[in-house]
């Protein structure tokens, strides 16, 4: 029986105004090809790079959030490789003096995944493969955009754990505002290094699977490689160190090339950029402007009274946590009640519409107002659920309640008349209640229908119990 040994290399597109070494806009997603370029990111002769301070500061913030050590000095290097989407035929990256190293991320249950390093580099362009041609095109809009590359130790032991780790890293990056970390837009990509071994044996030969752009692809590529490598070793074969790609349609890995070693990249210090000193004063400033991290949010939510499950769902989703905090500030009721609605009815509606929270028009203050109406007994929970879709489209609950006369009937005399009428109309059900007290729910339902859902259910049940002698059973 073989066990996997997994390490991840994660690339995050940094959320900066300009590219890493020039003044071109950093985010060119959705633009026409090759419009966000200049002599520097095109690698034209005589052009000189300059360091984007915003990118370095965000990389420091991210490294600190991953519990990394940030050195006093950091430096850029040239990493030489020759691909059509690398216009300079080298990449400005970092080698032995990264911006952060020796960190860790803690997963649920206390499992720690160690971080080898975080370094800053520039992105390459991308190849486009049009269906109408027998050749590829090159789009250099992305060339020179700032990236953080984070490399883990080979501490991950199964594909699901790899997926959980990616989720934690994405939550941290989004909470800090370092990156949108959106795989669908290419702003979070992962390479996986995977080998298998028998328990207790040394590490096996690793295979790298490149440029996975979704958490699901990471998990499935790892599952496939574990089976593939295990079968080869069981048959007496050997694993060749190589780079694989992931065939999404075939759900399998495919050979791309034999793996280069570090020597093949011929790293050397970037001659056009100075070594940078990261002072204690700079570190202090970065710590002061660092937003609240997901782990801290989780602890805060648990302290507020949320169940750990709900606290985790909200704390590690940036959009949900911002919405929750704004709603709670306006609601000032039980935090768990708010979490129940946000994680249940609101998320359920979003999933049914296949949209994100940010794409809805639900206002945090409107959700808070809805819950206040429930708590005060002004409307029933059912009425609240009925009007929720309209709140998701921007409606104000207070206005809806007034316009449609949806306020709950709490007048005991009015409800008692309805209860008396329903009891008189249903002698058979009344007779059944003596043997089966739960049959009272049939009468409850009829009263609610007659009141068009406006009667306060608790008051209806109480009156039915009194009139039918069910006080002890109610």
Please outline what is shown here:
With 474 residues, the protein is α+β, with helices and mostly antiparallel strands. Helix 2 (159-176) packs antiparallel against helix 3 (215-234) and helix 6 (294-304) packs antiparallel against helix 7 (308-315).
What this model shows, in words?
By secondary structure, the chain is of the alpha+beta class. The chain has three domains: 2-282, no CATH class; 292-403, no CATH class; 412-467, Arc Repressor Mutant, subunit A. Helices cover 40% and strands 18% of the residues. It has 16 helices and 15 strands. A hairpin with a 4-residue loop joins strand 12 and strand 13 (252-258). It is elongated. The mean pLDDT is 92.
Regions with pLDDT < 50 over 5+ consecutive residues?
none
Structural class of the helix and strand makeup? Answer: alpha+beta
Summarize model confidence as the mean pLDDT.
92
Number of helices: 16
**First-to-last CA distance:** 58 Å
The count of DSSP E runs of length 2 or more, i.e. the number of strands, is 15
- Summarize the amount of helix as a percent range: 40-55%
Please compute the radius of gyration using only Cα atoms.
30 Å
How do the strands of the widest beta sheet line up side by side? 5-6-9-1-10-11-12-13
How much beta, percentage-wise? 15-25%
**Shape category:** elongated
What about the largest sheet? 8 strands, mixed
Overall tally of domains: 3
């Amino acid at each position: 029986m073989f066990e996997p040994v997994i390490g991840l290399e994660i690339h995050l597109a940094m959320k900066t105004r300009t590219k890493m070494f020039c003044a071109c806009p950093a985010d060119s997603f959705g633009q026409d090809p090759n419009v966000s370029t200049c002599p520097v990111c095109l690698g034209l002769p005589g052009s000189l790079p300059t360091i984007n301070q915003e990118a370095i500061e965000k990389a420091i913030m991210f490294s600190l959030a991953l519990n990394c050590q940030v050195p006093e000095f950091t430096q850029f290097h040239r990493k030489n490789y020759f691909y059509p989407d690398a216009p300079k035929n080298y990449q400005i990256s970092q080698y032995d003096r990264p911006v952060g190293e020796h960190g860790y991320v803690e997963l649920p249950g206390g499992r720690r995944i160690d971080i080898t390093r975080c370094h800053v580099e520039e992105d390459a362009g991308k190849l486009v493969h049009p269906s109408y041609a027998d050749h590829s095109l090159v789009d250099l809009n992305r060339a020179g955009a700032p990236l953080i590359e984070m490399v883990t130790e080979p501490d991950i032991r199964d594909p699901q754990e790899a997926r959980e780790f990616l989720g934690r890293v994405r939550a941290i990056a989004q909470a800090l505002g370092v990156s949108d970390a959106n795989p669908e837009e290419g702003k979070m990509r992962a390479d996986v290094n995977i080998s298998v071994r028998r328990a207790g044996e040394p590490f096996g030969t690793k295979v790298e699977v490149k440029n996975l752009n979704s958490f699901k692809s990471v998990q499935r590529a790892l599952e496939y490689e574990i089976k593939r490598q295990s079968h080869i070793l069981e048959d007496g074969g050997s694993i060749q160190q190589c780079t694989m790609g992931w065939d999404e349609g075939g759900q399998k890995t495919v050979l791309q090339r034999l793996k280069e070693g570090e020597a093949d990249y011929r790293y050397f210090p970037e001659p056009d950029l100075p070594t940078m000193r990261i002072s204690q004063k700079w570190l202090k400033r970065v710590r002061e402007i660092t937003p609240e991290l997901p782990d801290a949010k989780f602890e805060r939510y648990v302290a507020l009274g949320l169940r750990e499950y709900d606290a985790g769902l909200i704390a590690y989703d940036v959009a949900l946590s911002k919405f929750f905090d704004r709603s709670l500030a306006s609601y000032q009721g039980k935090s768990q009640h708010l979490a129940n609605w946000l994680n249940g009815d609101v998320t359920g509606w979003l999933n049914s519409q296949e949209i994100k929270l940010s794409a809805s028009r639900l206002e945090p203050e409107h959700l808070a107002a809805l819950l206040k109406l429930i708590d005060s007994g002004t409307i029933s929970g059912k009425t609240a659920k009925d009007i929720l879709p309209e709140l998701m489209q921007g409606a104000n609950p207070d206005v809806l309640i007034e316009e449609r006369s949806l306020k709950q009937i709490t007048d005991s005399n009015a409800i008692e008349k309805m209860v008396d009428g329903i009891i008189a109309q249903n002698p058979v059900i009344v007779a059944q209640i003596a043997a089966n007290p739960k049959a009272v729910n049939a009468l409850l339902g009829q009263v609610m229908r007659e009141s068009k859902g406006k009667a306060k259910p608790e008051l209806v049940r109480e009156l039915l119990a009194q009139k039918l002698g069910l006080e002890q059973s109610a």
